[in-house]
From TrEMBL:
InterPro entries: 4-hydroxybenzoyl-CoA_TE (IPR050563), HotDog_dom_sf (IPR029069), Thioestr_dom (IPR006683). GO terms for molecular function: hydrolase activity. Residues 20-99 form the Thioesterase domain. Keywords: Hydrolase. Belongs to the 4-hydroxybenzoyl-CoA thioesterase family. The keyword Hydrolase applies. It is an enzyme of class 3 (hydrolase). PANTHER family: 4-HYDROXYBENZOYL-COA THIOESTERASE FAMILY MEMBER (PTHR31793), NOVEL THIOESTERASE SUPERFAMILY DOMAIN AND SAPOSIN A-TYPE DOMAIN CONTAINING PROTEIN (0610012H03RIK) (PTHR31793:SF27). This is Acyl-CoA thioesterase. Its EC number is 3.1.2.-. It comes from the Bacteria.
Length: 128
């Protein structure tokens, strides 16, 4: 449905474990950074006084390790926009090597935490 520009992130020393490999949970943090950058690029704040888009489901297959100094290129696309939710595909690369790939679902919630319809302005910005 909608692809976003590649998000580039260099692996910092603090992202790694004692083996010098990025801990699996940090890959998900990188993906969230890319998601926020994608939404901002579309003119949508991922979190505001109106509400936000927390994850309700994430599936990630890890294919290859990332190490300190590697550059991760993260590709994101919205593959389905529901009334209240966004379904995303993601792929993380280090050069030509696939590091991780998967899907996630985010749901729009009000600032009080209740799921609700994605506001029309946000929907239009994410569709264009």
């Amino acid at each position: 449905m909608k692809s976003f520009p590649v998000f580039e992130r260099r692996v910092n020393f603090a992202d790694t474990d004692l083996a010098g490999i990025v801990h699996f949970s940090n890959i998900l943090r990188f993906i969230e950074e890319a998601e926020h950058a994608a939404m901002f690029s579309a003119g949508v704040a991922p979190v505001s006084n109106v509400g936000g888009f927390p994850k309700v489901h994430v599936k990630c297959d890890y294919r290859s390790p990332l190490k300190f100094g590697d550059v991760a290129d993260i590709l994101l696309e919205i593959v389905k926009m529901g009334e209240k939710s966004l379904s995303w595909n993601f792929k993380v690369y280090a050069g030509q090597r696939v590091v991780a790939e998967g899907t996630m679902v985010t749901v729009f919630v009000t600032s009080s935490g209740e799921g609700t319809v994605i506001p029309l302005g946000m929907r239009e910005a994410l569709e264009s």
